[in-house]
Amino acid sequence: MTLQSSPSDILPTYDRVALDFYAQRDRSLFEKPMLDRMLGVTPRNMSPRRLLDLGCGTGAPIATYLAERGLAVTGVDGAAGMVELFARTLPRETAVHADMRGLDLAQTFDAILAWNSFFHLSPDDQRSMFEVFRRHAAPNAALMFTTGTSAGEVWGEAAGAEVYHSSLDPAEYRDLLVQHDFKLIDHRPEDPSCHGHTIWLARYIGAPGHA
């Protein structure tokens, strides 16, 4: 009997398939409309504006696009192979090899992005991530992340390898945003203009760096 992958398999899997993932990643930038939407609500607390990309992967195409638009990008990924490729792709940006769970970089950012990464965590780890989001949020910071459409676990693939996904109920995501001082701006379930991704965009309205 073949066992399905679990959240603990995610980082070793992405480390193992990093080169294949880089070669196969869709670079059409279908994410552009939502990235532009995030940029439109990202404050100018400092120049350049600072982005925290959680689960940054190889940096292509999303972090590259945002860096080209003047953001100072800090990419964080727990898979060493992904961080190495990110550093090669964006040598002028900051690459951090770290697990996003419990992350504390002792700095805040004008935008926080977890695109197709946060949903690889277990439900409990996803709940805990909202404290990580808040800890790294500068005044009025934008937060954008992708999820599933309903509570549950599913399995997909990345570069031919099986990978775990989970999601909370949308009502719980809304509650977690409120509890951690984020105001929901936009929620797009299975957005047809973004290849069916379910996207959340919020703004931080709490005190800077509050933990």
TrEMBL record:
Keyword set includes Methyltransferase: yes
Molecular functions per Gene Ontology: methyltransferase activity
Keywords on record: Methyltransferase, Transferase
InterPro entries: Methyltransf_25, SAM-dependent_MTases_sf
GO biological process: methylation
Ranges where the Methyltransferase domain occurs: 52-139
Methyltransferase recorded as keyword: yes
Protein name according to UniProt: SAM-dependent methyltransferase
